[in-house]
Specification:
The complex is a heterodimer of chains A (168) and B (481). Chain A is an alpha/beta fold and 168 residues long. Chain A has four helices and six strands, in the order βαβαββαβαβ. Chain A has a six-stranded mixed beta sheet with strand order 2-1-3-5-4-6, with helices on one face. The termini of chain A are far apart. Mean pLDDT of chain A is 84; it is low at 157-161. Chain B has three domains: 2-45 and 417-480; 55-90 and 369-407, no CATH class; 91-166 and 184-368, Cytochrome-c3 Hydrogenase, chain B, CATH 1.10.645.10. Chain B is 43% helix and 19% strand. The longest helix of chain B is centred in the N-terminal third of the chain and has 33 residues, at 93-125. The two termini of chain B are 36 Å apart. Classes of the chains: A alpha/beta (168), B alpha+beta (481).
């Protein structure tokens, strides 16, 4: 399967050297290790403008990141385009801005989702997840994998609905 | 106490301690006179502990965790230090040129990202424009060609990095004493395919930045501007060299304070002052002392400091840049953007030059010599001069690490820029408008500071603007992305 045929893109981002900020890359690694057909996995410290190019040709795009104060163990929701955000620094780019940029620049409109896995310890330069974050990661994986297996994204066939930890 | 209560406090600060982002506080007295303006940056913490006890050969990879925007600069600077540890500082032609190619790719992508996606909204729409428009999406809607160019230039730079470092992030290309891969013919031809377009776009970006500066010269001459010293590395013949060279510092008039100082002697010429209100240190030139010895680094300082640029298109632009101030250093803070684009053009020219060099297909990749236990290295990162200093023990384990990053060196200049803008635009006002607050940010953005924010977890507001009175009451609140 060529990269173009991988209709689902998962971008797991964060800094693994800052404790639970590594949740996004940890999830990406776990999914990539399963080598699921139809699923392209990317990882990075943060989202970047050129990620809009990766979004082209995909049916679904999932942004996986650590969440500082979101519900436990994770939340999963559609990510709409969020135009009009001001940017203070090149060191930060939000999923909503990326979705908006993909539409404006390249008319790329995949279904887009955010998976926010709750983290707790974001101290600098500690290359491990906290025990609670590890458990949340496992729960997030259990939730996400059935959608990804067989190349089926969460938006296909109306199978998906927004999930927050509070509803569990 | 009465006086304290009458002071109005304007704070631009992050919500939580883990942000790692900047905080700006502007204090005004009862007569609406600015009494103090300061920028606080939570400097990266704990790195020394993180790296201590680790083998030196792991350091070039580990240090990339310091910054998500310029990991390549840390990777290469650490690699240059470990070259000294293994006695392999005189690299093979393939080793040095591969590293240089990686570095120019990094400079090209970082500068492009900053200019097109962070600075251009202010330049294209003006400081007072509606914030709903003054952002990257606004640029995408009204100047789509520029926004696309920014994305494609950033992508190209990342591809250069991938071809030289092995991957876009956390590359492993540079190793102690050399490099672990050469450039294949296929990689070379792939990169050559787009390089002329990149040079054309970079040239157009210089034109845009120059025209903006010239068109707004009277306003920009004063905007957050002040005379200062400038520091950068230069090649032996005085040329701009972003990868290697000796330290040169010039004063606001262009007189040399010191020149061609090898990095191994940096502690003889540069010291760092600690101030009780900031985590971040304040470096200064020792011979001038902390009061007069502070200096600027980065694109503006580099163009001001070098004698010439060794690529034709960028050199022509440098000459125009210097002509604006009669050949003396340009001290206009907003001229950072123009200088940054000259370096972007230079980087593209250097990439093309290197891609045509057969040494990149060489197979002699690593050298080693007499090992050492202490090493210093310097490189010009996109934001300015970057120092790495390490000591190792008999087992090759790191016992000491000291880093001076560019944003630390621009700490005092950024504080001065904020103070100048606050006094010029906010002092005496009844209301602090969005446009006025944005001017403070515009001055900071010119330096493209690294805010050591390699975490970006969901749910955090990177920057919150609060206006407070002396009693701590919040009068206004704004959020920055």
């Amino acid at each position: 399967m060529t990269q173009e045929e991988k209709k689902i893109l998962l971008i797991g981002y964060g800094n693994p050297a800052r404790g639970d900020d590594g949740l996004g890359p940890a999830l990406a690694r776990a999914v990539a290790a399963r080598n699921l057909p139809g699923v392209q996995v990317e990882t990075g410290f943060q989202l970047a403008v050129e990620d809009v190019l990766e979004m082209a040709g995909r049916d679904e795009v999932i942004f996986a990141d650590a969440s500082v104060d979101g519900p436990e163990p994770f939340f999963f929701r559609p990510q709409e385009a969020e135009p009009g955000e001001e940017t203070f620094t090149t060191h930060h780019f939000r999923p909503g801005s990326l979705v908006a940029l993909a539409v404006e620049l390249f008319d790329v409109r995949p279904r887009t989702w955010v998976l926010g896995i709750r983290g707790y310890d974001f101290e600098m330069f500690k290359e491990e997840l906290s025990p609670k974050a590890e458990r949340n990661l496992e729960e997030a994986l259990s939730f996400l994998l059935p959608f990804l297996e067989g190349g089926r994204g969460p938006g296909k066939g109306g199978a998906f609905q927004t999930f927050t930890g509070e509803k569990r | 106490m009465a006086q304290e209560k009458s002071i109005k406090r304007i704070a631009i600060h992050p919500v939580t301690r883990i942000e790692g982002h900047g905080k700006v506080t502007i204090l005004m007295d009862e007569k609406k006179k600015v009494t103090q303006a300061r920028m606080h940056i939570v400097e990266f913490r704990g790195f020394e502990r993180f790296v201590q006890g680790r083998p030196y050969w792991e350091v070039p990879v580990m240090v990339q965790r310091l910054c998500g925007i310029c990991p390549v600069s840390h990777h290469l600077c650490a690699a240059k230090a470990t070259d000294w540890i293994v006695g392999g500082e005189k690299l093979t032609p393939t080793g040095e040129k591969m590293r240089r190619l990686m570095h120019y790719g990094q400079m090209f992508q970082s500068h492009s990202l900053h200019f097109f996606h962070l600075a251009s909204p202010d330049l294209l729409f003006g400081f007072d424009a509606d914030p709903a428009v003054r952002n990257i999406i606004g640029v995408a809607r009204r100047h789509k060609d520029l926004a696309v160019q920014g994305v494609m230039m950033r992508k190209y730079g990342q591809e250069v990095i991938k071809a030289t470092a092995g991957k876009k992030i956390h590359g492993t290309g540079a190793i102690p004493g050399g490099i672990n891969k050469n450039l294949s013919i296929e990689e070379r031809d792939h990169l050559l395919g787009d390089i002329d377009q990149m040079i054309r776009w970079a040239k157009a970006a210089v034109d845009l930045a120059r025209k903006y500066t010239e068109d707004h010269l009277e306003e920009l001459k004063e905007f957050g501007s002040f005379p200062s010293n400038h520091l950068a590395i230069v090649r032996e013949d005085g040329a701009l060299d972003l990868y290697d060279g000796g330290l040169r510092a010039v004063d606001a008039e262009g007189n040399k304070i010191f020149d061609h100082i090898p990095v191994q002697r940096y502690l003889e010429f540069i010291a760092e002052e600690v101030r009780d209100w900031s985590y971040m240190k304040f470096p200064f030139i020792k011979s001038l002392g902390p009061e007069k010895g502070w200096y600027r680094v980065g694109p503006l300082a580099r163009i001001n400091t070098c004698d010439f640029i060794d690529t034709p298109l960028a050199e022509k632009e440098r000459q125009e840049f210097m002509a604006l101030t009669g050949g003396k250093p340009n001290n206009i803070t907003m001229a950072y953007h123009w200088a940054r684009m000259i370096e972007t053009l230079h980087s593209a020219e250097k990439i093309k030059e290197l891609l045509h060099d057969p040494d990149l297909q060489g197979t002699d990749l690593v050298v080693k010599g007499e090992p050492r236990k202490e090493a210093m290295a310097v490189i010009e990162a996109p934001r300015g001069t970057l120092f790495h200093h390490y000591k190792v023990n008999d087992e090759g384990l790191v016992t000491m690490a000291n880093l001076i990053v560019s944003t630390t060196q621009n700490n005092e200049p950024m504080n001065r820029a904020i103070t100048k803008v606050a006094k010029d635009f906010i002092e005496g006002r009844d209301e602090i408008s969005e446009g006025l607050l944005n001017r403070v940010e515009v001055a900071i953005r010119a330096y493209d500071p690294c805010l050591s924010c390699a975490t970006h977890a969901l749910g955090r507001m990177p920057l919150v603007v609060e206006v407070r009175n002396g009693s701590g009451e919040v009068l206004d609140r704004r959020i920055r992305g």
